[in-house]
Amino acid sequence: MLMGYIDDATGKIYARFYDYEGTMPAMDSFKRHIIRYGIPQSVYLDRHSTYKSTAKLNLEAEFSNAKALSQFESALKELEVDAIHANSPQAKGRIERSFKTHQDRLVKELRLANISTIKDANTLLGSYIGRHNAMFAVIALKPANLHRPVPKDINLDRVFSIKDKTALRNDFTIQHNNRFYQILEPVQAKEVTIEERLNGKFYIYYKDSQLKHKLIDKRPQKPKQKLKQRKPRYILPRDHPYRLFRKFRMRKVS
After folding, report:
1. Residue 144 — left, alpha, or beta (φ > 0 → left; ψ -120 to 50 → alpha)?
2. N or C: which terminal CB in the chain sees fewer CB atoms within 10 Å?
3. pTM for this structure?
């Protein structure tokens, strides 16, 4: 799968090979793109589930005019990049025509170089894209570059990660992907955020604080509560004043 970008102003392309089209490849390719060229104002995308969420909102979210976002859209929102979704392939014809060119020229380049792995293909892409941009890129009508540099205070590893919120139980354990994790520090929270990074590493956060944790085999069981022993029933002795009084009263009544 070749994931590519084309700049509207200059026609310069950026592309990279991945195993499949999905959230992780989309995040990785866009991260590499902005590190090289800067953050664009907007990105024109199709309506693949990677780029546009298909989740249904609950009534509370609908009344507050909230919008369901995919993981990729959430990353763009953090970077203040507008996501524009095309209603048809023709609407984003520039990148589609570019892909048609690559399906011809790039495939031949790979065959001539006897390349059959993604790693080698991405290595060849460096020289291929350079030659392609030299031939087909144009000078922008306006000299100003509207790409923003990546702010130094932004952690791109956190931005480009899959985030899921999960409930934090009273015993400071959480469950994720059928596994149990024990939080190793006290935190007053009903839920925490799980972040899965592009490198496969796994982190747990509460707000901006990273929480130490460990994988456990199963959720610890609560200790069984001992049944309270009932106090033995107290029986009044026969010579107790109450018994004598009651006996006297009954005789008097009779």
Report:
1. beta
2. C
3. 0.79
- Our CA angle for 109, 115, 120, nearest 5°, is 105
Torsion of the alpha carbons at 142, 144, 146 and 150, rounded to the nearest 10? 150
Phi-psi region of 200 (alpha: psi -120 to 50; beta: other; left: phi over 0): left
Torsion of CA 72, 73, 75, 76, to 10 degrees: 120
Three-state SS at 182:
strand
Dist CA 235 CA 227 (whole Å):
24
| Long-range CB contacts for residues 124-128, cutoff 8 Å, separation at least 24 | 125/15, 125/16, 125/17
Which candidate, 94, 81, 103, places its Cα nearest to that of 137?
Answer: 94
Query: Which residues is 92 bridged to in the sheet?
Result: none
- CA distances to 30, 143, 169, 214 from 134, rounded to whole Å, are 22, 18, 57, 51
All residues at 6 or more sequence positions from 6 whose CB lies less than 8 Å from its CB, including other chains = 12, 13, 94, 95, 98
pLDDT in tens, the chain (254 residues): 999 999 989 999 999 999 999 999 999 999 999 999 999 999 999 888 888 888 776 655 555 556 788 999 999 999 999 999 888 777 788 888 899 999 999 999 999 999 999 999 999 999 999 999 999 999 998 888 889 999 999 999 999 999 999 999 888 899 888 889 999 988 888 999 999 999 989 899 998 899 999 988 877 666 666 666 777 777 777 777 776 666 655 555 45
The amino acid present at 110, given as its one-letter code, is L
